[in-house]
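Quick one from the shared queue. A colleague (R.T.) flagged WG containing repeat-containing protein as missing a structural entry in our internal table.

Convert sequence to structure tokens.
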Amino acid sequence: MKKLKLLILLLTVLAASGCSRQNKNEQVIKNVDNTASRTDVITADTQDDKSESTKAKDSSRLLLAYINDQDEKKYGFIDQTGAFVISPIYDQASDFSEGYAVVYSSEDNEYNVIDETGKSIYKSSYSIGDFHEGMAVFDDYKDGKTIEGYIDTTGSVVLPAIYDKASVFEGGNAYVYADNQIQQIDKTGKILSSHDINVNDIYITDFYDGYIVYNSVGNSVMEAMDYKGKKLPLPNNVSSDYTGYGNLMYLGNDIFAVMQKSETEDYSSTFTTPYALFKADGTQLTDYIFYDLSKFSDGFASATDDTTTFFINTLGKVSDTLPKFDGRGTLTLTGDIIKAEIDGILTYETTDGKVIYQTTNDVKLTDSLTLKAEKFKPNKYAVIYYPVLSGLSDSSTAKAINENLYKIFIDKRKDLKKEDNLSVEDSFDGKVINNILLVNRLGYDYSFGAAHGMPIDDYYPIDLKTGETYKLQDLFLENSNYVEILSKIIAAKIKEESKKGQSIYFQDAFTSIQPDQYFHLDADNLYIYFSPYDIAPYAAGFPEFKISFNSISNIINKEGDFWKSLHGTK
């Protein structure tokens, strides 16, 4: 089913594919400063004969970037001109570290460590960490649990997966957890020191710089200790029945983020409660004023308030030398390049404000028509990208269409407040079918504390000649009884699936479509669909039924404006 994977994973629904789109990369990338087109795009495992100097130039400071490909992000790597040098073909990817990155393909269900030419040096079905001092932690799964070991930059397993948890190497040493002990090891696996841990059956969420952030299994309260097992003197602001998560985080540089005590102790408090910074020795650096904290990189972490995202230094002071960004997200500083992921838009820019690369939610419909994305942000938890049609020669029709699109996307969102504790992420897709503009409104609403959110998938067929938005009934002859006819077709399809033992539908849930039932279409077919829970479980997504126009030809109003516009005969 369309978007099923995203719905099961509860990810944000992004722009769906439009069959009239052209080059995908051209539509979603705003390559601001790239003045020359690039043809030397590298794909994974490519063997090329470039000179070493050319390779070094091409791969210098590769940056993780993505394009919007149908419902999903596809990751690759760009150079500092903003041009892709490793193609955006991966479903997940990490930043390069010491010349290597980890990429993941869902088609192969495989993680790959690639070098800066895209060549794979190591593959695994389980996750792999970043390289530090030539070593990276890799996962394996045996006897019902995840265990960890180390590979080197040749892709060889140096230390086998025998540890419950392993940290990165620093100064030639790393820390591992096994058999209720924290051990300090060197790169040969030799144990330099070991310390018994009195806390049994723990789940480690962070293991870095000799610190362990953990919770006891069955308990959501996060605690921290050093590698000798000594508990750190950090505040514990939640009770033993706390049901949220992330109330304590290690940010690097001996600094921890501690969540403020809250009257609510569930998942909602995780989103709405501020954090303060503390040193590992218990010294409080800041008040409880920061949200969405990231780890430190090059001496700075990022944080948000109600309107902006900004950098803070290791004293917890807001930087007055680095830029602030309007909106909510995270920032990472590496040298003189800022990676900004704000309100669903990825931007790379230099510290002096030069933009290298930026994604956009614009949708190119035809050579002349584009749905440009405009942002509406009523509060910190909501971001709505709504479409504005450009390139239509009839300006009055374009104005009418855009006024209607604004109303569709914004009217029910404009009064949202942060106190509503509702995360809203709206976007769109679109395509042109002859004289019909089919706009797809996509979204995901999540009420803080709920088990999951609710996706949005609405279609609006708009006449590019008149600006009229059509309804399902506009396709059919008056008094055609289209509701009953379409309902019988759908009921038969459900019955057929049930006979094959393939039915995903609730028993006896479907009786009839509504006169204004959800639908979309192409030139040859009508698609009737239902929202989650209407006739099937949430995991089924939006159940959809394809009905060819030929099979219902006798009830279609072929002299109507909708049909004529759909087929370009108006």
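The chain has three domains: 63-298, 299-359, 363-567.
The CA atoms of residues 442 and 457 lie 5 Å apart.
Added to the table.
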